[in-house]
Specification:
The complex is a heterotrimer. Chain A is mainly α. Chain A contains 13 helices and two strands; from the N terminus they run αααααααββαααααα. Chain A is globular and about 85 Å long. Chain C is mostly helical. Chain C contains ten helices and two strands, in the order H-H-E-E-H-H-H-H-H-H-H-H. In chain C, strands 1-2 form a two-stranded antiparallel ribbon. The radius of gyration of chain C is 23 Å and the shape is globular. Classes of the chains: A mainly alpha, B alpha+beta, C mainly alpha. Chains in contact: A-B, A-C, B-C.
Chain lengths: ~325, ~525, ~290
């Protein structure tokens, strides 16, 4: 177990280095940040000065080397645009995004798994069909469109919820959280629902599919034959066996919710990393893009690791690091 | 009984209500379209920043809503000879920390401007012509320039004065945190959250009189629909840059009012004249390169301009929030010519001119443009393509985010480029020098001339104008230069953007040509 | 229930027809497919030919008559494009982009996911780390790089979508294959000394498919929506050749102003398309899943 963890750590390190290099190449391929940062009315002298000030006058590989040296000491560079340490900028915005992603995921799981179970146990009932049809709505319309319709209905027409921004926050272990204030919750609700919709549909469908299979399996039939209650059969035997793909997907989706909250954050002006990222990409603010991705990848690595550990707990047939041992 | 009740009510009102209700009345929120990247007034020369900084800091010379120069921290200024300028400073002005404003602060500011570390776009361009500053007395300064520099007052209107006492050891971080963000302006720093909001508080001791707002919150709402939704739901009381799609609805709704003004930004087309043969993305109709560059022929350029129905673009694409353009600035600005009129829409004439120039069957081109930079930029590009299809030119459209577009455009990777230009100085000479003088960045000429148009006669006129101190003569020269360039269709001007602001009922905004959104322009209305 | 036909095909048909909902879905899907194939023939206008558009006819409401006497039944967009024709053509592109990118991404993800699970060891490590990188790269950054390097076009957007999505399949396949690999039938196949590719593709693959089909059908929809989102961010298809997604995102800005038709009708078309694909796919999956055989 420990050896496995150490090996994963080593691999992760290479992932991070490779990742940062890819971003350097990517941003380089997209365009020259100076074109966007320097005032168009500025003269050539000013352009050259700005290029040098941002360190963009050095050869490409040297720029990367400078970055690596800084990264080794924990410095991921300063934002071209904001002139503050890129890492600090991201860590400042990360709680808002994680909070949003977390609430969205909770909504998706809390609603998705029970609805999926119902649809899977009674696939031919009106309720089951209704749930399935409803779930299609969740992923067939683009997020930005649904987001704006939500705003139109609940903020503009009904005036129930604020249209944008994050509400009042309270400090929780040094981190600003808006989950525990009424104002914070009203701000959080719409963006979280908007972000949750796709995941919700996916979870409903996955749970339903898994349930339909599971109820036909021998062990479920056997459990039923033993006279176990319906609740126990579903809760223990069905649920436990369909959880593996679901945990994978939840793990994946939690990561992708954090990483790709871009659209939702921009419609609701949610001050998180997604909005920061899209603005940074549009401005070619390379240090922020790199730092963002490194933070996100680290997060993904942790999530994946947790998911793998959960597998081994849910299904004894999967052994950690055991892939190699099979031969 | 009734009397006591009334008394009680009055007493109650005196106790609690007036303190609460007007305070709420005196707070406003404003939705901005772009992030404020710093609270350091010398860090990033960028419109949204410059606009925000004007609340906290002030320049020696201000620009009014029409970009006319008016006294700011200087009460008067004059050129005593070709190389010397004398500025009289305003007396009894205090910084937010109570310290008095003097000539030393001006000297300090000029010293700081070119030396802000990591600045992605500095203000040094504006202070560079000044080679020496002399303090005559605490309220008189004298600037020396190496060559005659008639634009000095205009340049100094872009330089905000910081306090020497607070600024001496301060870095950009100290301005962002508010520690050094101490100016003389009508509002004080209260809070700055990057990419989210800026909060300002009234400066009650302001020399120019009291502002109607105690607290102003600027929210960054980059998504246009989110901005409108915030106004409609009452989360903000004013938004800038109203999406054209929503203008019709908002203008009919009595709950809102619109303010607009033609801006200093022209949307235009640069035609790539850098190559002898086909410029990029320009071919004959079968896709083969042409043996000469059609854009070097003034007749072709003129035909491409005449084929565009500017009125239709203004009316349908821009929802009337644009004005057909004849030059680089609307004709009430300095150096513009009243003789120039927008090219008349004449597809027949355009066909004839093309035939005369040797392209009776037209040719093929791709219109390149950004899709997130100017108002409805991608729609304008599409509309132009429609008009070209009617004069026998096969036009494709390719639009992309500005992150990709401007780098490629500067490398001249395109043939037909949709671009925009905002003249911050408010005088046409500088725009002509940047966009149409022969490309020579070392001399500061044609720096943004992506069409590489080159005309020695025009260069000569612009050069002479730059050294002429007599305002009347200088303006005449710039007008003449503009007429020369526009009659040669050196570029294709399309329209001037109209800046729009929408306010909730009970508020009124004084629209500005420089597209700035200032709380000082927002007033309660009855 | 239905005729006990002869041969697997007839049985398949009979089983499929058991669900009326699935039959309805199939009918709609066929209609949509027909419309998108026949778009050039049945559309009143070629919405991609700029010469046929007139900006002076822009934003007409549904049923409004233009200056030249033509009636636009679903209205026009901001360029004067007939919405009906735009939707017909847009369906074609959206379906094409959605299906093509899903098929390619699925194929790539399947191969890598199976390899990772079956071979384990360094192959697994390598594939999964690449997957980690891929999954954390924002789609918008990938799309922007591809736009800068390759330019704009339908083929490029497919490349972008495949690049974004394959890793997702790879991970899903791997996780179910890891479970399947340990089961008796694989052991048995190994004991029989069957070829590795035979074990992987004939034995492992079919048993990993069911959860994958769920993900894939959802992903076709997701791919179409992702294309719309990229268009919304200005990174999608050329604006003169709009897909459904691009039509929706173009109309998006008119939602607040009451010109609902510019994004409502394309949205409706998208909804119908995705719904029918899923109705059909749900039934197919139930029939094909060996574990649901009664």
């Amino acid at each position: 177990m420990l050896a496995y963890a150490i090996r994963r750590l080593g691999q992760s390190f290479f992932v991070l280095v490779l990742m940062s290099f890819l971003v350097f190449v990517g941003v380089y391929a997209i365009g020259n940040p100076v074109e966007l940062l320097v005032n168009p009315q500025a003269d050539e002298v000013e352009r050259i000065r700005a290029t040098a000030a941002l360190g963009l006058d050095k050869p490409f590989l040297e720029q990367y080397w400078v970055f690596l040296k800084g990264a080794a000491s924990g410095d991921l560079g300063r934002s071209f645009v904001y002139n503050v340490p890129a890492l600090a900028l991201i860590l400042d915005k990360l709680p808002a995004t994680i909070e949003l992603a977390f609430v969205a995921m909770v909504i998706a799981v809390v609603l998705g798994i029970p609805l999926g179970l119902v649809a899977g146990l009674k696939p031919d009932s009106l309720l089951g069909r209704g749930i399935m049809a409803g779930s299609i709505l969740g992923f067939s319309l683009p997020t930005f469109w649904v987001g704006l319709v939500l705003v139109m209905v609940f903020s503009v027409q009904l005036g129930w919820l604020p249209s944008n921004g994050r509400g009042e926050t309270v400090a929780l272990a040094g981190v600003q959280v808006s989950l525990f204030t009424a104002d914070g919750l009203t701000h959080l609700l719409m963006p979280a629902v908007n972000l949750a919709l796709f995941k919700l549909s996916l979870l409903i469908r996955l749970t339903r599919a898994g349930t339909r299979e599971a109820v036909l399996q021998d062990y479920v039939k056997f459990a039923r034959a033993k006279g176990l209650t319906q609740g126990r059969v579903i809760g223990v035997h069905v649920l436990k066996n369909i959880l593996i793909p679901i945990v994978t997907v939840i793990g994946l989706e939690l990561g992708s919710v954090i990483a790709f909250a871009i659209v939702t954050e921009s419609i609701f002006a949610w001050p998180g990393t997604g909005k920061l990222l899209i603005d940074s990409i549009n401005q070619l603010d390379r240090p922020v893009i790199v730092a963002y991705l490194l933070v996100i990848v680290t997060l993904f690595i942790v999530i994946n690791f947790v998911v793998d550990v959960l597998y081994s707990m849910l299904d004894p047939r999967v052994r950690l690091g055991g892939a190699a041992a099979a031969h | 009984m009734l009397r006591t009740l009334r008394l009680a009510l009055v007493a109650l009102a005196a106790l609690g209500l007036p303190a609460l209700a007007p305070a709420k009345d005196r707070e406003v929120s404003i939705g901005l379209q772009a992030a404020i990247t710093s609270m350091d007034p010398h860090y990033h020369n960028l419109s949204p920043n410059n606009s925000m900084m004007l609340h906290i800091f002030e320049p020696l010379i201000k620009r009014d809503a029409n970009q006319k120069l008016v006294p700011g921290l200087a009460t008067s200024w004059k050129a005593t000879d070709d190389l010397t300028w004398e500025f009289k400073l305003r007396k009894n002005v205090r910084f937010h920390d109570g310290s008095p404003f003097t000539a030393e602060d001006v000297v300090f500011t000029l010293k700081r401007v070119p030396n802000v570390p990591n600045s992605p776009s500095s203000f040094a361009t504006f202070t560079k012509p000044i080679v020496d500053v002399k303090v005559v007395d605490p309220h008189t300064v004298v600037f020396k320039t190496a060559t005659p520099h008639v634009l000095l007052p205009s340049d100094l209107a872009s330089v905000l004065i910081v306090s020497k006492a607070n600024g001496e050891k301060a870095a950009t971080e100290d301005y962002n945190s508010g520690k050094a963000a101490i100016g003389t302006g009508p509002y004080k720093y209260a809070e700055y959250v990057p990419n989210q909001r800026v909060v300002l508080k009234a400066n009650f001791g302001y020399w120019g009189g009291e502002e109607p707002w105690d607290k102003v919150t600027f929210k960054i709402l980059t998504n246009p629909a989110a901005r409108v939704a915030a106004l409609l739901s009452g989360d903000v009381q004013m938004i800038e840059t109203v999406p054209t799609a929503d203008i019709g609805k908002l203008s009919r709704d009595p709950k809102y009012s619109l303010a607009d003004k033609v801006s200093n930004r022209v949307i235009y087309v640069h035609l790539n004249q850098s190559t002898d043969k086909s410029p990029p993305f320009v071919t004959d109709k079968s896709g083969k390169p042409l043996d000469r560059n059609p854009f070097r022929d003034a007749r072709v350029r003129k035909a491409l301009s005449m084929a565009i129905n500017r009125d239709a673009i203004v009316d349908r694409v821009m929802e009337k929030k644009a004005v057909s353009a004849s030059q680089l600035l609307p004709d009430f600005f300095y150096g513009t010519s009243k003789k120039l009129k927008p090219a008349k829409f004449d597809p027949e004439g355009a066909r004839k001119l093309l035939a005369e120039a040797g392209y009776p069957g037209g040719f093929a081109l791709t219109i390149h443009g950004p899709n997130n930079r100017y108002i409805n930029d991608d729609k304008v590009a599409q509309a132009i393509a429609q008009f070209y299809s009617r004069i026998g030119i096969d036009a494709k459209v390719e639009t992309m985010p500005s992150a990709v577009y401007f780098t490629r455009a500067s490398k001249l990777e395109f043939g037909y480029m949709l671009l925009g230009w905002g003249t911050e100085s408010g005088e046409q000479g500088s725009s002509l020098r940047s966009l149409l003088a022969t490309y020579d960045p070392a001399k500061g000429m044609g720096v943004t001339n992506r069409g590489r148009y080159s005309n020695p006669a025009l260069d000569q006129m612009l050069h002479t104008a730059l050294l002429t101190m007599d305002e009347k003569k200088r303006e005449a020269m710039i007008q003449q230069a503009a007429e020369l360039a526009m009659n040669d269709t050196a570029l294709i001007p399309l329209h001037y953007e109209v800046s729009t602001w929408a306010t909730a009922k009970g508020f009124a905004y004084t629209a500005r040509t420089d597209q700035y959104t200032l709380a000082t322009g927002l007033r309660p209305s009855k | 229930m239905a005729a006990r036909g002869d041969g697997p095909w007839a049985r398949f048909r009979a089983e499929f027809a058991e669900s009326r909902l699935a039959m309805a879905g199939l009918a709609i899907l066929l209609a949509i497919a027909a419309v998108s194939i026949l778009a050039p023939v049945i559309s009143p206008q070629n919405p991609y030919d700029l010469a046929q558009l007139d900006v002076l006819d822009s934003k007409l409401a549904p049923g409004e008559v233009a200056a030249d006497g033509r009636t636009y039944w679903l209205g026009t967009d901001d360029q004067g494009r007939d919405m009906l024709s735009g939707i017909f053509y847009g369906l074609r592109i959206s379906l094409g982009v959605g299906l093509a990118s899903t098929v390619f991404a699925l194929a790539i993800g399947l191969v890598f996911g199976l390899m990772a699970a079956y071979f384990g060891g360094w192959v697994d490590t390598l594939v999964m780390r690449v997957v980690d990188i891929q999954l954390s790269f924002p789609a918008i950054l990938i799309a922007l790089v591809l736009l800068a390097v390759l330019g704009q076009g339908v083929d490029k957007i497919i490349v972008a979508l495949v690049t974004v999505q394959w890793a997702y399949y790879a991970r899903t396949v791997r996780s179910s294959a890891l479970v399947e690999r340990q089961k008796e039938y694989i052991e048995a196949a190994r004991v029989l000394a069957l070829g590795q590719s035979r074990i992987v593709f004939r034995h492992l693959l079919p048993n990993c498919l069911p959860p994958l089909i769920v993900v894939a059908t959802v992903q076709v929809a997701h791919a179409i929506a992702l294309e719309a989102t990229l268009s919304f961010l200005g990174l999608g298809l050329p604006i003169t050749e709009p897909s459904l997604g691009l039509l929706i995102s173009n109309g998006f800005q008119y939602l607040l102003s009451g010109k609902y038709w510019i994004s409502f009708y394309p949205g409706l078309a998208l909804l119908l398309t995705i719904m029918s694909i899923n109705l059909v796919a749900d039934q197919l999956r139930d029939i094909l899943n060996p574990r649901l055989r009664k």
